[in-house]
Structure formats: C-alpha cells, structure tokens
C-alpha cells in the first residue's frame, strides 16, 4: 500500500523577540564583524509568519508595526524562503504574511525572528524535514541573530553571535520595553563603538560570572544589577536621550536598565508582574518613548501554530 502525504496549503510559525542580558563586543575582525560573548533571552513578544504558494513573491504585512517593515522582496523573510527553496531544489513563489508585534529596528531581533520563522514555515510547507542543525546553518547565513530565535530560551552566543550553547538558568523574568519612534541601524552602532574605542586596547569578550550566577539562581535583583551591554555607549552617543530614559526607569523602580542589543529599545527588568505594570504607567506618564511593551522571558523558540480544525 502506498501512503499519500499531503503537503499543507499554509503554514504559520511564531517566533520570539530577544533581549541580550549581557553583550560583550570584542575587537573588529578581519571580516568586518565583531567577536561577541553574549547571553540571549527570548521574550514573549512574537511575530507570526504564514507562508503559502503564490504566482509571484510577495510580502503582506499586518499587526502592530506593519507600516514599518519592507513589503518588497528585499524583506529578510523572502531571502530566508529563497534560501530554503534553493536547499530543497524547489521552484515555487510564495506569499509571506508577517504579523508584526516585535518592534522594528529596535535591537530585539524582529527581522531575525521573521527570518527564523520563515525558515521553519518553508521547511514544513515543502515537506523537506530539515533538521535543527541544517536550519541553524541556513539561519547563520541570513544574519548573526537569526539562529537564536529558532531555539529560544536562554542561550550563550559566541562567534559573531550565531554559535549557541546552553546556559544553566531558572526562573521567569518580567520585562518592560521602551520603544523609540525611529530605529537604529546595527552597522552604524557597531561603527560608532569602533570610533569610540579607536584608541582603546579591546579585550576578548567574556560573559561575567556574576550574570551567570544570577541566572543560575533565578535571582531577578542580582540579574538587574548584572545587565551589561558594550553597545550601550555607542547607542547613547547616537541617541543621547536614551541615557535619560534608562535613568528614569531605574528611578521609577526598575531592578536594571539596558539598551537592548544595538538599540534603541531600552529593556527594564522588574521584580514582578505588578512592578512591570507600575513601571509602564510611570514611563508612559513621563512620555519619554513612543511605545511601552511588557513581556516575560524566557520563552520557547520558533514553533508551528496549529491550523484551525476544519469541521
Ligand atoms: O549579521 P547581521 O547581518 O545581522 O549583521 C549586521 C551588521 O552588524 C554587520 O554587517 C556588521 O556591521 C554588524 N555586526 C558586527 N558584529 C557582529 C554582528 C553584527 O559588526 N557580531
């Protein structure tokens, strides 16, 4: 007897945003990238990407930040889909719908989450059954931050951020994110850190024992004071108002404040869900940012959202 397997008509995948709990940036390498030592945490702001067959490549944007993402074929999700097509020997165009809830160009890897979601969605749509290692390899070709949202949780990143290893961690953390009106370009922030450190002897990057101990214990207060980001001074230099925003959040009771990745989103760690609500109200009243979002971390990485059952 032969088994006929039917491929799905549409596949939807959810992928999370990230915050770097610590981001240490080494010297600029010969290939233009910087060696990193970082700890990523996936947080509960998600994009959803749906892929379906189509006569031509197109991106349809929906959701909170829909108006801010490229809708043409230069969207990273199209590049992700075409990479999977190439790997699988598939010659088919897709419509890619992106339901955007992760701040755009905010340092939370929203574009990377879309790329990761698209890789997994295309794999399922075309029935390729690529394993996690193969997907991670494709993800690293698309960008340094793309492998992380495939896996989620808490992970240490090295290399240019794409080499991931587990970290011992417990607990759940309550975050408040202050989102700016306009994004920052990651290459510009890295160029600024090079400029600021032009005369400095930059050591090889290492994550601190203090941060790892705080995560191991699930100790929010210790984690708050161990948050660190080498890109923060570069982000402050390009956007001086971010310093004031960080200070305001700490004055309002946050356990710690940090520019998320290359910014300009600022992440505040709080002691509880209630403390996160209180901080949101205070930040909102101070009118220092465009948007305020609350989230918990860690959460799982990219996963398929089951299709609604047909009756
Ligand atoms: O890898 P991705 O395309 O996301 O990187 C965008 C840019 O950010 C790179 O072109 C580079 O300028 C900078 N970058 C870096 N070092 C890293 C990651 C990114 O200099 N480890």
UniProtKB/TrEMBL annotation:
Pathway(s) of this molecule: Isoprenoid biosynthesis; isopentenyl diphosphate biosynthesis via DXP pathway; isopentenyl diphosphate from 1-deoxy-D-xylulose 5-phosphate: step 3/6
Domain GHMP kinase C-terminal residue range list: 211-279
Functional note: Catalyzes the phosphorylation of the position 2 hydroxy group of 4-diphosphocytidyl-2C-methyl-D-erythritol.
Entry-linked PANTHER family: 4-DIPHOSPHOCYTIDYL-2-C-METHYL-D-ERYTHRITOL KINASE, CHLOROPLASTIC
UniProt-annotated binding residues for ATP: 103-113
Family the UniProt entry places it in: Belongs to the GHMP kinase family. IspE subfamily.
Keywords: ATP-binding, Isoprene biosynthesis, Kinase, Nucleotide-binding, Transferase
Database matches in SUPFAM superfamilies: GHMP Kinase, C-terminal domain, Ribosomal protein S5 domain 2-like
Active site (catalytic residues): 18, 145
HAMAP family: IspE (MF_00061)
Catalytic reaction(s) noted: 4-CDP-2-C-methyl-D-erythritol + ATP = 4-CDP-2-C-methyl-D-erythritol 2-phosphate + ADP + H(+)
Gene3D superfamilies on file: 3.30.230.10, GHMP kinase, C-terminal domain
Name recorded for this polypeptide: 4-diphosphocytidyl-2-C-methyl-D-erythritol kinase
Organism encoding this protein: Intrasporangium chromatireducens Q5-1
One of the GO BP terms on file: isopentenyl diphosphate biosynthetic process, methylerythritol 4-phosphate pathway
Domain GHMP kinase N-terminal: 75-153
A Pfam cross-reference name: GHMP_kinases_N
Residues annotated as signal peptide: none
């Amino acid at each position: 007897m032969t088994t006929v397997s039917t491929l799905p008509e549409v596949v939807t995948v959810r992928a999370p945003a990230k915050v770097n709990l610590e981001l240490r940036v080494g010297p600029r390498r010969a290939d233009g990238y910087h060696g990193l030592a970082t700890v990523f945490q996936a947080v509960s702001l998600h994009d959803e990407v749906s892929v379906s067959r189509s006569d031509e490549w197109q991106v349809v944007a929906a959701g909170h930040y829909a108006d801010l993402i490229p809708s043409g074929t230069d969207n990273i999700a199209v590049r992700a889909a075409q990479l999977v097509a190439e790997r699988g020997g598939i010659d088919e165009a897709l419509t890619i719908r992106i339901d955007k809830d992760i701040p755009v160009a905010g340092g939370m890897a929203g574009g990377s989450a879309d790329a990761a979601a698209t890789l997994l969605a295309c794999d399922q749509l075309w029935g390729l059954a690529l394993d996690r290692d193969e997907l991670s390899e494709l993800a690293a070709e698309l960008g340094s931050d793309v492998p992380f949202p495939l896996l989620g949780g808490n992970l240490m990143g090295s290399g240019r951020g794409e080499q991931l290893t587990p970290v011992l961690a417990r607990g759940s953390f309550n975050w408040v994110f202050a989102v700016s009106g306009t994004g920052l370009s990651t290459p510009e922030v890295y160029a600024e850190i090079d400029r600021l450190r032009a005369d400095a002897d930059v050591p090889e990057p290492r994550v601190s024992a203090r941060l790892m101990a705080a995560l191991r214990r699930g100790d929010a207060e210790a984690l708050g004071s161990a948050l660190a980001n080498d890109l923060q001074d570069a982000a402050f230099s390009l956007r001086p108002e971010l310093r004031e925003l960080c200070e305001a959040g700490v004055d309002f009771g946050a356990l710690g404040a940090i520019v998320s990745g290359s910014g300009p989103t600022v992440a505040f760690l709080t002691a509880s869900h209630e403390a996160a609500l209180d901080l949101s109200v205070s930040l909102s009243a101070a009118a220092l940012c465009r948007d305020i979002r609350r989230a918990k971390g860690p959460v799982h990485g990219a996963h398929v959202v089951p299709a609604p059952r047909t009756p």
